[in-house]
Every structure is written in C-alpha cells, then in structure tokens.
Recover the amino acids of this structure.
C-alpha cells in the first residue's frame, strides 16, 4: 500500500501563539510503502499495532525501514529506523508485559531474527535462527495459515519473561517442529525438538501457566497413515525440558484436545476437545462427543467429563450418533471460555459436506478426477456448561451458509477437512475477546447478509456480561471502499476502510454493544 | 447613550451574569443570515485576490489562494463565528479604538470574526479575515491584552505577511535550484527519500525562520498600533505571560468521575478509568526529540524572547500611562463568562462531545447551581449512548493519548471502555441525581425524557406531556 509522505507547510493563518506543524508535500516524487502491519498481542489482548514501512533504497540490496509502534489507540509511541536487506519482511509481533518482540524473516539469507525492544523503545537484544532450505517450504505454508485475529501464529508471550516460538520443520519426508524460548530480560535461549520416531508430527500450542507450556501433539508413524496418536506434552518453561508426555488414551477412548486454558487461582489446566472410541482413528473417524478435563502440573487428568453426542447433547438438539446436528452438521469447536459462575462456554460452528454442482460439472466436462463435494459452513453454536461440566444449554445463532470448495474433500473425513478449513481461515468465527474490565467476553464472527435494506458483509458479536448474553452487528459494506475488521482492545474492533479511488486508509475503532 | 437604553443594557447585563452564576445559561443564537453575509464578503475579496494574481507561478499561487479561502470557508461551514449583536458590537468597538488612533492604515477590508473555538489562539488569514477565538479571549485579564492580540493580528495583515509567506514559499520551492534538485532526485534510485527529506527540511526551516521574523515584526508593530489607543502597553507583556501558561485549564480539573456518576443503586467501576499498562507507557519514557530541530521548526519565537523584545521596545517609549480597560470592563467579564459556555455549546454542536463533557464537568465546581452544565453533561452522555449504539462513538469522542492530561485521559478511558448498558445507567444516574433541583428546567426535562426512553421507562410519555404543558411545544433534540 502506498501512502503519501512528508511535510506540509502551514501558510494561511498567521496565528497568535500556535505551535509548529512542520509539513510539506512533494507530490508524485516520493512515496513510502507499508510492507506489513498488524496487532501487537499480549496473550489474546491487543496492546498496540505495528506498521513496517520501506522508506528508502540504500543500494541494490539494502533498504531503509521505519517501524512505527503505536499503542492500542493508534497513538504512535515509537518510530524505529533500521537498515536491512531488501527482501526482509516483518512477520509478527508480541508483547510480554515489559518487552516487545518483532519476528523478521530474511529470505535471502535464510534467517529468522527476533528483535527484542524495551519500553524505552530501544533494541535490547536479538536472536537469530537459520532457516534450513528444507524448512522453507513449511515456513511458507505456515505463513499462509490463518490464525484467530487475537492470537499470534509463531510467537507466544510469557508474562515478563520472554517469548516462545514454534516453527514447523520438514526434513525429507519427515514433518516435525521445534519450540524455542527467547528471554526478554536477559539474553537466554533454549530449544526443544520432539524425539525422533514419528514420520509426521504436528503441534498446537494450547496455552501456558507460569512454568509449563501445554502442547497438543498429533503424530503418526507413516505420512499417509490415518492412525494418529494424540499426546499432551508439557514443557518446563525455565529450561525447555519435557515435563510430561501423556498419550491421550483413557477409559477406552482417544482424545483430541482443541483448546487449553489455565484455571484461575489453581495450578491446574482445563483441556477440552473431542473424544473418539478407542478402536477409532483420531480425526479420520467420527468422534463420540466432547470432553472437558482438568490436568495437573504432571499432565495427569484430575477431573473429566464426557459430553456424548447421543446422550448429553441430544437433550438439547436433534443429533445423530455420528455427531451430526440436524440442519447444522458436525460441530467444530473453536474456543472454551470461563464464565463468572465457574462454568464454561464452548463456541462451536457447524460444518457439513454437500454435493458440489460446480465440481460435478467440472468432473464431467474434464473427464478426470475432480472433487464433487464441498464443505458448507453453517451456524454458530453456543454450548454452556456448569462448573461441574454438565451441559446446561445450547443456543444456535443462525447465519447464512458459506461454501468452500477445494480438492480432497471427497477422500478425507469431514473432521480432517474441518481442521484444514480452520487452518486456512475458512470458518466465519473471527475471535474471542476477554474483557477483564467489564468482566465478560465477546465472540465475533462475520456473515454475508442478503436482506432488503442490506447486502454484504456483517460483523456479528455475541457478548456475555453480568450473566447476560446480548448480540450486536456492524455492517461492513460501504460505498467505494473496502472494509476490513481487525482485533482491537477488549470490547472494541478496529475498522479499516480503504478507499480505492482516493487511495486513502481510514482507521477507526468501534465499541461492540 | 440615552439613560433609558443604558438602563436596559445594565438590566440585561445583570440578568445574564446572574443566570450564569445561579440558574441557567442560554446559548447565543447563531444568525445564518449574518454568517452568509460575512462569507460572501470573504468570497468577494477572494475573487478579487484571484483575479489580480500575475507574474511567476500564477497557477501555483492561485492554488494556494484556493486553499486559503477553503480554510476561511471552513470557519463558516463549521458555524464557528459568534453572530450575537452584543458580542460583535463589543469586538468592533475594540477594533474601532485601534482604528481611530491609527488613521493612516486602511481598515476597510478587515473582517473581525469571533470564533467559539476553545483553542486559545487568534489568527490573520491575510485577506482581511481576522479570527479571535473564544478560547483565548476567556484567558485574558483585561481589554488591553485583547487589544494587543488584535493589534498583533492586524500587524500581520498590514505587513502583508500571509501573501509574503506564500511568495517566499513559492520562490523557494519553485526556484530553479530546488526544481533542478527535485528533477534530479526524481530520477535517483537510491537514498531518494532521505535526500528529499533533507531538501524539504531546508525549505521548512527557511519558512519557519521567516515565520518567526514575521511574529517579531508583528509584536513590534502591535505596540505601535496600540501606542495611541490609550491602552496600557505593559499589558502586552502580561498577555504573553498569560499565553505562556495557557496549557493549564481555567477551571478545576478534578473531574470526580466516580463520585459524580455513582448512586446508591449503581456502582461506578474503578476499572473503567484505571490506567492500563500497555504500550502507552512507552511514550512517557521516550527520549526528547532533537531540540535543535524542534527549535528550527517553531513558528513563533519563544515567549520569553518575545517578552524581552517588547520590554526593550517599551523602555524606549517615554509616555506609557494607558489603561487596562477603555470600553466596558463589566461587558468584558460578561463575555468571558458567556464564552466559557459558548465553547461547550460549540464543542457539543460540532460533535466534539468528549471535550464538551470535560469542560462541563470542570465548570460544575465553579457554577454548582447552573442547570445548563447539568443538562449539558447529561446530553453528552446521551449523545455518546446513541453514537455507541450505532457504532460511531469514535466520531464524537477523542481517543486517550499521551498528549492529554490525566484527568481528560481518565474521562476518555471511561468513554472508551464502558459498555452500552452501563453507559445507559451512568446517564440515568446523572439525570435522576439532580432531578428534584432542575426538573422544571427545559434542558433538564428533555434529559429526563431521553433517559426514560433509553432505559425503557413508562414515565416517558408523562414527561413529554409535562414538557408540552410547560413550554408549549414538543421536545426536540
């Protein structure tokens, strides 16, 4: 994006006591380009934004950059000037409460650099990690993945300690990953890599306590096998050593964790996800329902509850034994959120396979294989459980159906395709914001509405405050401009309107009701 | 002045001062006809200026004149000028005092605009429009200081500073050397922007140097213009001292948000105004920017320098026995008092609602019986409620910023954090708290109607009926 640059001279009003406004414009001569921008996150809370510009060319291979750091209200609090390689890009940023980290990628020198800045705006230290040529493809794929707007993809902040970064790796036909810690107070670093053995190992960062990082590891012996093993892995955040590695198979069931959160006031974690029959394959076969469990610092399950599709959930909705809800399809669970009575809310979204008219027509015309099914994203589902994890209520928030078509839908299970859709941002669910000030949370999702007075994208919010659930919507369709929604400080969203005609970018905040 | 007229004037003056102190303030009416007439005069002058542009860079100069007129027009579009007869008559009397004692100067094209802007400033646009902001007038101590401000802006006009500055800007930007450098830089591939910035900085430094010179010249000429008016010339120094401290507020800045917006049944949350520990703290720890560069970019010389220069000038003037007031001390004070309210009204009407709320809360301590301030505080909360409901709160409130003081920042944090339901309650707490005192006041009764609507209370219709009975018309926002 190109923005106008430089100075504008105030010529007109000769005032009695005004302060300097040093600006002047040289039209069509100079310009700057925003290379990247994004939120600066602490946990899942927006603490500010970064705007990374290329301001000048130094020589063929070197550029002058400017990194503008703003607070959560877009007040510029620091401008950092730096000289770096022409192809460097800023991938992500995070804030640990006392330091900021910016992750740069230099494709020419195959290097990731984590630059740590203090609150005085000065660079404190940096850490570099070479990127093996074999890892480049994985990194490229990971860069295309979509994350929830309020979560960093590569960097997870640890309160006032530093940051952990998880990088996917590929060595030959083996898929693996690596976790690194980078200290922010003092230069300290450790790495953790899974033990060799599995041909295919992927990881999801579930969350952390003061001393432990919880990871969900899905691995299998053969790349094309569908026999996934699900593990809950605990890493000591002080030294990077493995604290526990629990194979998630208990009571004759297999588990697939989807989210984990620390339990306030306790040293335990709450983990939730889907469970499978012991004979079934995780992700490949149909799950039996949802599980919620608390685990201690050793990864041992203390308290566990199964919410079976056929027993618990069927009391609230028409649901088949395979977990398919009438008119909605299967449930993909995005988030579990604690509520003030000690219970929890699970945010899920419906999805189902459907015949693709386009796919069938293309297959017939091309006389070759073409996926003839598509995925349809349906309604948002709110499941509320009591403090003892008993299911209390299910509420369905209707929205327009949204179809996604891509190869492989026919041959893979709906659950695996849903995981793929989640990774590439295909669901309508956007993010969950916890609002500590007002003691509640907001769930945001987008929808495409076609009503008489309105046609276009709408941002919807479901808010939970003072045990009361309210809904709100913001129309995102404006004439002559493109509108984007970005996460903002709790209770707000940032709306960016880009005018194609005037080539201007307008940023504003709106509070959710 | 005839005794009868004088009596009427004193009666009105005493009445309105009393209203400010005890009862209600009624905002001054804006006369659209007068606004249009003033704008037409400015437009006529603008057309004449455009027609007489000739010589080098005609096109560029015309473009700048277009922009200059747009800036003048904005004042009128924004309904900033106060058109009340008492106000304009007073300021034209002030101008007349200067005019009478400076007959060699041509005042025929001067259009004096009194603006309701809260910004403590005055300005000369170079084509005859001189703007005196209410925000500056309210801070002055006497008429002599107001006369100095006016003379300073008149000096800019008589010395033709605005047009000279345009010429100077064009001659430096469109000089053969600068254009050659720009052409050369346009074809450069490396370090282009750094070199452009350097070139721009040189031009801006030059322009600001001219500005500072112009300011010093205007101070000197202001003294000359004041010399025969009979005003105390020493007040020019006091005026600059006032200007030096203008960043502090006129009224008590303790907003007491928790105390004001709580009731027995509604608890104000400290968390709404709590300072967040985010990146905002970075701003307070940043190093001061380059002081040499900052000095070079100032449009005005430092105030101590300006004071020193005026003192030197005054020491050479032998007879300096002027007065602080020559026109009407009581009216001066009344206008100052009115302007404090007018600035609030202007902020509210021009959708600067967070500022209207700030000033209303500040003034409540000084005017605890003034129903206008109670109604305005409530109206601001109601407007915030409706704007937040339609997701446009950002249009009428400022965002917390490191440049604001802590009191205003805490108010902005509250507005930016509070949820719609709670805002409705805060608004209602405020409306009910002073109900028994002001429920027969038109503005306050309107506030009660709005709050009954927001909080879905059945009494809304009853309140509307009462309003119609009392004021013989339907309530209008």
């Amino acid at each position: 994006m190109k923005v106008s640059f430089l100075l504008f001279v105030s010529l007109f009003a000769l005032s009695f006591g005004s302060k300097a406004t040093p600006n002047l414009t040289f039209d069509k001569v100079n310009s700057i380009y925003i290379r990247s921008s994004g939120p600066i996150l602490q946990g899942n809370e927006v603490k500010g934004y970064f705007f990374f510009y290329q301001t000048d060319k130094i020589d063929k291979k070197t550029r002058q950059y400017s990194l503008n750091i703003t607070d959560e209200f877009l007040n510029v609090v620091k401008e950092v000037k730096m000289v770096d390689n022409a192809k460097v890009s800023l991938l992500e940023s995070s804030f640990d409460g006392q330091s900021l980290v910016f992750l740069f990628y230099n494709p020419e020198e195959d290097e990731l650099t984590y630059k740590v800045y203090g609150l005085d705006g000065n660079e404190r230290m940096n850490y570099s990690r070479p990127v093996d040529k074999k890892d480049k493809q994985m990194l490229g794929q990971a860069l295309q993945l979509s994350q929830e707007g309020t979560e960093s993809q590569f960097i997870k902040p640890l309160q006032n300690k530093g940051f952990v970064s998880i990088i996917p790796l590929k060595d030959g036909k083996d898929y693996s990953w690596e976790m690194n810690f980078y200290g922010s107070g003092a230069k300290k670093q450790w790495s953790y890599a899974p033990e060799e053995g599995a041909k295919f190992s992927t990881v999801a960062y579930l969350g952390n306590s003061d001393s432990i990082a919880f990871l969900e590891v899905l691995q299998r012996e053969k790349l094309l096998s569908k026999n996934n093993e699900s593990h809950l892995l605990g890493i000591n955040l002080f030294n990077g050593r493995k604290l526990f590695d629990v194979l998630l198979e208990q009571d004759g069931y297999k588990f697939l964790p989807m989210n984990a959160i620390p339990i306030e006031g306790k040293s335990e974690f709450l983990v939730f996800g889907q469970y499978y029959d012991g004979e079934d394959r995780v992700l490949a076969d149909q799950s039996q329902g949802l599980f919620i469990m608390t685990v201690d610092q050793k990864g041992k399950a203390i308290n566990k509850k199964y919410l079976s599709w056929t027993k618990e959930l069927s009391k609230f909705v028409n649901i088949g034994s395979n977990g398919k809800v009438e008119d909605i399809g299967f449930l993909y669970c995005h988030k579990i959120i604690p509520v003030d009575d000690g219970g929890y809310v699970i945010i899920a979204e419906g999805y189902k396979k459907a015949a693709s008219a386009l796919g069938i027509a293309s297959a017939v015309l091309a006389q070759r294989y073409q996926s003839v099914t598509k995925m349809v994203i349906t309604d948002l589902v709110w499941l509320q459980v009591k403090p003892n994890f008993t299911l209390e209520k299910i509420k369905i928030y209707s929205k327009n159906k949204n179809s996604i078509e891509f190869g492989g839908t026919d041959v893979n299970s709906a659950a695996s395709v849903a995981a793929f859709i989640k990774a590439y941002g295909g669901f309508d669910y956007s993010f969950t914001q916890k609002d500590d000030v007002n003691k509640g949370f907001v769930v945001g999702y987008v929808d495409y509405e076609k009503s008489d007075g309105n046609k276009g994208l709408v941002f919807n919010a479901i808010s939970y405050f003072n045990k009361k659930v309210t809904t709100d919507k913001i129309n995102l369709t404006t004439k002559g401009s493109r509108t984007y929604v970005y996460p903002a400080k709790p209770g707000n969203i940032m709306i960016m309107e880009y005018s194609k005609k005037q080539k201007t970018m307008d940023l504003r905040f709106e509070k959710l009701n | 002045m005839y005794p009868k007229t004088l009596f009427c004037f004193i009666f009105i003056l005493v009445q309105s001062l009393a209203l400010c102190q005890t009862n209600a303030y009624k905002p001054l009416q804006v006369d659209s006809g007068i606004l249009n007439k003033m704008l037409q005069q400015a437009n006529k002058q603008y057309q004449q200026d455009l027609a007489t542009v000739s010589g080098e860079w005609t096109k560029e100069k015309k473009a700048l004149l277009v922009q200059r007129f747009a800036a003048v027009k904005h004042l009128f579009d924004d309904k900033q000028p106060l058109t009340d007869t008492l106000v304009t008559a007073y300021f034209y009397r002030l101008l007349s005092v200067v005019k009478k004692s400076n007959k060699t100067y041509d005042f025929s094209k001067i259009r004096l605009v009194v603006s309701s802007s809260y910004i403590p400033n005055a300005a000369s646009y170079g084509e005859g429009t001189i703007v005196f902001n209410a925000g500056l007038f309210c801070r002055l101590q006497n008429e002599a200081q107001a006369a100095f401000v006016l003379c300073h802006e008149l000096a800019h006009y008589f010395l033709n500073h605005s047009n000279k500055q345009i010429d100077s800007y064009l001659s430096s930007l469109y000089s053969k050397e600068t254009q050659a450098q720009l052409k050369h830089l346009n074809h450069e591939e490396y370090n282009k922007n750094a070199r452009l910035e350097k070139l721009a900085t040189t031009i801006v430094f030059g322009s600001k140097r001219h500005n500072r010179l112009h300011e010093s010249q205007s101070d000197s000429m202001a003294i000359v213009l004041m010399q025969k008016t009979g005003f105390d010339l020493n007040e020019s120094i006091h005026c600059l001292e006032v200007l030096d401290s203008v960043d502090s507020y006129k009224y008590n800045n303790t907003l007491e948000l928790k105390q004001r917006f709580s009731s027995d049944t509604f608890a104000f949350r400290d968390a709404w105004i709590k300072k967040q520990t985010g990146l905002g703290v970075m701003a307070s720890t940043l190093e001061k920017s380059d002081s040499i560069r900052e000095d070079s970019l100032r449009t005005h010389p430092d105030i101590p320098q300006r004071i020193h220069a005026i003192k030197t000038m005054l020491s050479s003037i032998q007879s300096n026995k002027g007065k602080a007031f020559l026109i009407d001390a009581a009216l001066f004070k009344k206008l100052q008092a009115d302007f404090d309210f007018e600035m609030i009204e202007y902020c509210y009407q021009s959708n600067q609602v967070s500022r209207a709320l700030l000033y209303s809360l500040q003034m409540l301590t000084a005017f605890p019986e003034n129903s206008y301030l109670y109604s305005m505080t409530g109206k601001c909360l109601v407007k915030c409620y409706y704007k937040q409901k339609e997701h446009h709160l950002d249009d009428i409130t400022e965002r917390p910023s490191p440049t604001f003081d802590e009191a205003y920042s805490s108010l902005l944090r509250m507005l930016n954090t509070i949820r719609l339901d709670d805002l409705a309650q805060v608004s209602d707490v405020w409306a009910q708290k002073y109900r028994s005192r002001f429920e027969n006041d038109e503005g306050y009764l309107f506030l009660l109607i709005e709050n009954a609507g927001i909080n879905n209370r059945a009494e809304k219709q009853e309140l509307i009926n009462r309003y119609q009975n009392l004021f013989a018309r339907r309530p209008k926002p």
